[in-house]
Write a structure and sequence with these properties.
Length: 501
């Protein structure tokens, strides 16, 4: 619950909360990191006014009774909050307050890293004391932990992207352990805090914590260009740069231009293999619950009862995989085939915001988790222009994706069939016929891509004529539907061969 929603008060005399001697029942990382917000507590900037000067972080805990035990459980805190904040906070605010109090009183330890934001700058320090309960002016900082702050602060816009994502979570206490290495790097201790400092024994030696590897994409190679039959290496290099800059890209063009094939091959090349690639196909009934997460019926194998359980979709699964420790420097790719066939606002929901603001997080609709797209997750979509759908793409999507055209009239698609036929040792006639056909098509969105003629069946006896009659001419009949035009006479093989012997 935001600080500004809490009512002032004072809990009584200063009380140290002795740590319970009972062993912990759950595993805890040897050293963790936390964000505690204090720049707007009932309109006052406690970070600037007292935290940095006096060396502590705090929570109001305004209506809590004297706490008699250390490491209070959530059930104990929930009872105190329900009684003390009755009428002063909503149900969801009480739930959030319980989580924050539990993290501050129970999960934090001496030696943990702690961060605070004030005036657009991040301050980093180390927790040096146990939690204490004490009266404070206006009841704004009744629960405190002593902190040794480092003298140097850091501008928010200069922080690593992964740190910005975590800092955007809108809670008063946020677990930053996932970016502990980055915080240690900002503090000047890549391996953890100074072991000689109080609480420093909880850190890992530098030799045990590998340096964070930078996220990048492999350079395009001549072999990749050769395998893809792309003779312009600079085109592939530009696609790589667009992915690094935008993280989202759409290949668009007429049917048969190899959009999906190229997306899969590039994703596997840049990601290091098919394990880092997931492909989905959009359709008109596709929804947020299919794409990200939603409640789905699941049958219990023993009782045969059916219950609805929150189930992750392909994007959530891939994002969780990309966020795991050890995976954060590895590019992961989600390929969305026919991305224009679904209602994008309906499918992406609040995630639409994250496609543009990769350093921010949002509260998820179903799980209520704070979620951010990992910086190493890339999205490649494909879009067919023959159905005129690209003209219907709204400005919001255009702003979030880079658009790269694949057209039979321009590289790298132009000349692709001729290069493939040469590599396969086949007669170049199909490439000449396809070029002649596309020269007659008046609308570039209805040009015919080369992939129709890059299949083994085309080159069996009668295969070219069969493919032309059953695959290519029907596309052109649709284009000229309602017109008084003999499509076979204009685009048929016999006519093209006669015009281009």
């Amino acid at each position: 619950m935001p600080h500004s929603d809490r009512l002032p008060g004072a809990p009584g005399p200063r009380t140290a909360l002795p740590r319970d001697a009972r062993p912990s029942t759950g595993w805890r990382a040897p050293r963790k990191a936390w964000l505690v917000r204090g720049s707007n507590v009932s309109g006052r900037n406690l970070v600037r006014q007292s935290w940095l000067k006096e060396g502590f972080v705090s929570l109001p805990g305004t209506h809590l009774p004297p706490l008699e035990e250390a490491d209070p459980t959530k059930s104990v805190l929930r009872r105190h909050v329900e009684e003390g904040y009755e009428g002063a906070a909503s149900y969801s605010q009480k739930q959030g307050l319980v989580d924050e109090l539990h993290a501050f009183l129970t999960q934090m330890r001496v030696g943990d890293a702690v961060a605070a934001i004030s005036d657009g700058r991040l301050h980093v320090g180390r927790i040096t004391g146990e939690a204490v309960q004490t009266p404070s002016p206006g009841g704004l900082s009744n629960l405190r932990r002593a902190v040794a702050w480092l003298p140097r602060s850091h501008a928010y816009e200069e922080l690593p992207e992964e740190v910005q994502q975590k800092l955007s979570v809108q809670h008063d206490v946020v677990d930053l352990t996932g970016v502990l290495d980055a915080l240690d790097g900002l503090a000047g201790h890549p391996g953890g805090p100074d072991p000689g400092a109080p609480g420093g024994t909880g850190g890992h030696p530098a030799a045990e914590r590998p340096a964070q590897r930078e996220l990048t994409l492999p350079d395009v190679s001549g072999k990749l260009a050769s395998d893809l039959l792309v003779h312009d290496l600079s085109w592939l290099a530009e696609v790589r740069e667009l992915l690094l800059d935008e993280r989202q890209l759409v290949f668009y063009g007429p049917p048969g231009t190899g959009k999906t094939y190229l997306a899969m091959r590039l994703a596997e090349y840049f990601g290091g293999g098919p394990e880092q690639v997931k492909i989905v196909q959009f359709h008109p009934s596709y929804a947020y619950e299919d794409f990200f997460e939603g409640f789905r019926p699941v049958e219990d194998p023993e009782t045969r009862d059916v219950a609805f359980r929150l189930t992750a979709g392909p994007l959530r699964e891939l994002a969780d995989l990309a966020s795991r420790e050890g995976n954060r420097h590895v590019p992961h790719f989600l390929i969305v085939d026919e991305i224009n066939r679904a209602n994008l606002a309906k499918v992406f929901g609040e995630l639409y915001f994250l496609l543009e603001y990769r350093t921010r997080s949002v509260r998820l609709t179903y799980s209520g988790d704070d979620f951010a797209l990992p910086p190493n997750l890339f999205v490649i979509g494909t879009m067919n222009t023959a159905d005129r759908s690209i003209a219907l793409v709204d400005a919001a999507m255009r702003r979030r994706f880079a658009f790269v055209e694949l057209s039979p009239r321009s590289e790298p698609t132009a000349g692709l069939l001729a290069r493939w036929l040469e590599r396969e040792g086949r007669d170049p006639e199909p490439a000449r016929l396809l070029d002649a056909l596309n020269a007659l098509v008046d609308d570039p969105d209805f040009a015919i891509g080369p992939s129709y003629l890059m299949k083994p069946g085309v080159y069996r006896e009668g295969g070219l004529e069969r493919t032309w009659r059953t695959k290519i001419l029907p596309l052109l009949e649709e284009h000229h539907y309602g017109e008084d035009l003999d499509v076979a006479a204009r685009y048929g093989l016999a006519s093209l061969r006669e015009q281009h012997p």
